[in-house]
Amino acid sequence: MDFLACVQTRRSIRKYKQEPVPNGVIERVISAATFSPSWKNAQTARYVVVRDADLKNELAEKCSMGFEFNKNTIKNAPAIVLLTTVSSRSGYERDGSFSTSKGTHWESFDAGIAAQTLCLAAHAEGLGTVILGIFDEDKVVKAANIPEGEKLSAMIAIGYPGEAPNMPKRKAPQDITKYIG
């Protein structure tokens, strides 16, 4: 798939076919995500792939803060990717001080790049994804045994699409771009 076509045709998918995604396909998607740029090449993104129905149900029922769209998506997706980042590395110097005025926000920036790369790679593999942002981080971390020293950045549902949503209206480049000089 051509890159621009991949970007332009990727959609947030909330309904999935009940067909498991082979490990090899998920590994190719994660392998592509490892090429995401990161702060000083820190490569802090980590991935936990949840397929276990009981854990998915717990994430849906106890960790989604009652948000029905996420509850249904988590329960019905063949897998949920928990995207974590190693704490205190993005945006930091080796002595623990910040290198940027963004403070800890740089961890989120790196995680966002990794999430987008993962979603585009998944789309190129014929998979659908949606990045879920409404969840109780502490409950997810506990339920999934996320290691100490990692922060949960996003939950990403992944599977073969069971829907083909229309493209939402996009803003025109001339309406969102300013040139200086």
Give structural notes:
With 181 residues, this protein is an alpha+beta fold. The protein has seven helices and four strands, in the order ααβααβαβαβα. The chain has helices spanning 3-9, 23-33, 53-63, 68-76, 105-124, 137-143, 173-176; strands at 45-50, 79-86, 128-132, 150-159. The chain has a four-stranded antiparallel beta sheet, sandwiched between helices. The relative contact order is 0.24.
Notable characteristics:
NADH Oxidase; 181 residues; alpha+beta; single chain; four-stranded antiparallel sheet
Task: Write a brief structural summary.
With 181 residues, this protein is α+β, with helices and mostly antiparallel strands. Helices cover 38% and strands 16% of the residues.
Strand content: 15-25%
Helical fraction equals 25-40%
- At the fourth CATH level, what is the homologous superfamily? NADH Oxidase
For the CA atoms, what is the radius of gyration?
17 Å
Break the fold down into its secondary structure elements and pairings.
Layout: H1 3-9, H2 23-33, E1 45-50, H3 53-63, H4 68-76, E2 79-86, H5 105-124, E3 128-132, H6 137-143, E4 150-159, H7 173-176
Antiparallel strand pairs: 1-2, 2-4, 3-4
Helix pairs in contact: 2-5, 3-4, 3-6
